[in-house]
Amino acid sequence: MTLAAPILATRNLLQVVDLSATEITQLFSLASRLKADYSLFAGSLSQRSLVMLFEKPSLRTRVSFELGFQKLGGGVSFLDHQSSPIGAREPVEDYAQNLSRWADVVAIRCRSHELLSQFVAASSIPVINALSDLHHPCQALVDIFTLVECGIPVDQLHLAWVGDGNNVCNSLIEAVATLGGRMTVITPPSCRPHADVVRLADARAFRSGARIVFTDDLTAVEGVDAIYTDVWISMGDESRGVEKTALLQPYQVNSSLMRRAGSKTRFMHCLPAKRGEEVTAEVIDSPASIVFDQAENRMHVQNALMLALLRPDLALRCSSFTV
Ligand code: CP
Ligand code: NVA
Questions:
Q1: Ligand found nearest the CA of 295
Q2: Domain 16-135+298-317 belongs to what architecture?
Q3: pLDDT, tens digit (0-9, with 9 covering 90-100), for 262-303
Q4: Catalytic: 270?
Q5: Which of 152, 169, 282, 295 is the most buried (most CB within 10 A)?
Q6: pTM of the predicted protein model
């Protein structure tokens, strides 16, 4: 008898390029199935435990992971590290080895992406990046899932990023580069995404046929399916606050930019948003905005990931239909 391969080849999700296009598509199928009917998965993570280590504040990521994991029957422990960094009281490696003895998976929100690699090296349980300075993979996967739910085939998607080329932007670039489709990244030249991300995305895009364009020209929003923006000053980036706020003023997503994009263009934001800065209230609170659909979907896509990691048998059985 041959055993089917699990959905995921990787044990950790530190950035979107840890996943292949097929793996992401299977996760999306599973997330759709979860969203449609959780009763099929009741108790599927009973006796499993998630530990969450957070060095930065969170609403959506914390609650969607906690309630999502509990919905599948598992237990969650939240460790708040906002006042002292992970590794301050004891080495990161000891932390990882301790948690590996009690928990089944760990989700980490950290100031520096390097901490994740350090943690993974000593951990014997899967590690999920719940946001770092460089990446926010769970967010980006959910965002593409939400666009697919809107009826946009992923390979025909045209997404515009407007504003700061930050962690969420990096992860979206990796997602589009992996899955195909188009992304136009519109930022001031000094706010462009991280060069390593651009290099990796180029290599992926070569294989997938994706087109990723970097520009400072706001007219490039014409005809896009969605305009996505995020805060101008990310957590931990406060020292560049004054400089970036001045640079990014012309990149505010307002009614005039949305009109330029077209009547069918959706507005996206990972939240939390600053109305009056990167986006006007008129836009984020308009019918074009799908920001709360994105927030809702956090739980379903993350739960699909948890099942794929911790119950590969069940995940494989339930991920074989299209979104
Ligand atoms: N989008 C997002 O990650 O929100 P939180 O910072 O509230 O978790
Ligand atoms: N770019 C933002 C995302 C918050 C979810 C930050 O890192 O603060």
A1: 1
A2: 3-Layer(aba) Sandwich (3.40)
A3: 999 999 999 999 999 999 999 999 999 999 999 999 999 999
A4: yes
A5: 169
A6: 0.96
